[in-house]
Every structure is written in structure tokens, then in C-alpha cells.
Amino acid sequence: MLAERRHQLILRALRSGGPAAVTDLSEQLGVSPATIRRDLLKLEEEGLLTRVHGGAVVEEGDQPFAEVAEVRVAEKDVIAERAAAMIKDGQSVLLDIGTTAYRLARQLHGRRITVITSNLVVYEELADDEGIELVILGGMVRREYRSLVGFLTEDNLRQLHADWLFLGTSGVRPGGQVMDTTVVEVPVKRAMIAASDKVVLLADSAKFPGTGMAKVCGPEDLDVVVTNAPVDTTTRAALEEAGVDVVVAGKVQA
């Protein structure tokens, strides 16, 4: 993995998950602790983080939705288009938080479906489409990431059922475990999985391995993974052993 790519992943992990230990970053990125220490030193010299005992921290907190939404848009649209083709008219669809779910929502205009979401940007995208039955889950607002979380959101999900869940992720471990950088979102994601017949993970190439310290689910909880690039051999084997269908959507044009 190129140093620039490692630096991006390190900063994303720190922005979303708070302080991170060298050992955790080493495991997530598949490089030695010595390499991570050199990366942290370089990033500190550039003023992008502060090293602390055993790791590093940034002060920014969660990366705002608006910033994440501008990253790898073409890749996300390829994934969203392929995912939208799975949905039949009359079905109910749960859309997770995150920017790829938002790109999927943009593909659903004019469809006769029900969309259930805790993603405020999805709600805003579909609110004026009268053909779509739109259900917004209750909960506490995370303003910086435009989502709803908490026990109210989870209680709402226990009263609902969906044909499909389109799930986002911060990273997928080589063993197929789905990870997230924000602990408060994990119970909502798990409640979405429990409320759905079919679970589709939307994961662009940056999510293998991506980041994340909190486990959302294992590969056995997934039915399909839709990505835009070939999945590494180890991860693909773990997913397929669990019965997951790995779908590689069309390539992004340069």
C-alpha cells in the first residue's frame, strides 16, 4: 500500500473513531508498527495529527458528511446503480447512513417502493418524490453526519420489516467482518440487519480493508457485497465461504 493511501486511512480512522493505537492501525492496514510510527511522525510534521503515548489523535472529530460526500463519487455511483437494479417495484428498502446510501437514493426516483432510513440526506433527496413511501426513523440527530441514532431509532426498527437493507461500512476485514469507526452507529446497523430479509453491503475499493474499531457483523450476516473493484483473495474467500455473493459492478471510466 502506498504511503499516501496509508496516510488517508490513518486520518480517516482518527477523525471518526478518536485516538488510535499504533498496534490497532498496524493490524487494520496490514503493515508493521514501525511503518505506522513513521507515518504518524510524518503526519504530525504536517500538522494533521498529534502523537500521544502508543498512538495518535486528531481534534476534528467525525469527518463531516459534506466532505465525505465529495470523495470517490464515480465509484459510489457505479455501486449504487448496480444495487438499485436489485430492487423490484413494491418492495421495502432500508437505507443505512453514509454517502453511498445517499448515492443509491438518487437512483430510486420514480420507483414504486417504500424506503425506510435514518439517513437525513436520503430523506431530503426523496421527500418530494410522491411515488415513494418514505419512512424516517426517529432518534437523536448526529448533525455532523446527518444521521439518527439511539434507542428510539432501534425501537422503531424492531417494529418494522424490510425486503432489503443496503448497508454501509468503514471497512471490511480480511475475515469478512464488517467494521465501523463510530460506535454509536453500530447498534442501529445491527437493528437494521435484524429487520431485513436480505442484507447488501455497499463497499467501494477503499473499504478493503478500510478502517473501523467496532464490529457491526460477520460475513454470515450478509447476503451480497456490491463493490466497484476486485476483492482481495483472502477477503473474497471468507465471504464466499459464508455464502455471500460478491458482485463487482462495472468499472469506472478514467
- How many domain units? 2
The helicity comes to 25-40%
Biggest sheet architecture: 7 strands, parallel
Number of DSSP helical runs: 10
**What is the CATH first-level class name of the largest domain?**
Alpha Beta
Oligomer: single chain
State the total count of DSSP E strands. Answer: 15
* CATH-derived topology of the largest domain: Rossmann fold
Organism: Streptomyces cupreus
Domain HTH deoR-type: 3-58
Keywords: DNA-binding, Transcription, Transcription regulation
Protein name: DeoR/GlpR transcriptional regulator
Descriptive report:
The chain has 254 residues and is an alpha/beta fold. It has two domains: 3-58, Orthogonal Bundle (Arc Repressor Mutant, subunit A), CATH 1.10.10.10; 67-248, 3-Layer(aba) Sandwich (Rossmann fold), CATH 3.40.50. Helix content is 37%, strand content 22%. The chain has ten helices and 15 strands. It has helices at residues 3-17, 22-29, 33-45, 65-68, 73-84, 99-106, 120-126, 151-158, 186-194, 233-241; strands at 20-21, 50-52, 55-57, 92-95, 114-117, 133-136, 140-142, 147-149, 162-167, 171-172, 178-180, 196-202, 214-217, 224-227, 245-248. The strands form four sheets. A seven-stranded parallel β-sheet has the order 6-5-4-9-12-14-15, with helices on both faces. Helix 6 links the parallel strand 4 (92-95) and strand 5 (114-117). The longest helix is centred in the first third of the chain and has 15 residues, at 3-17. The chain starts with a helix and ends in a 6-residue tail after the last strand. The mean pLDDT is 88.
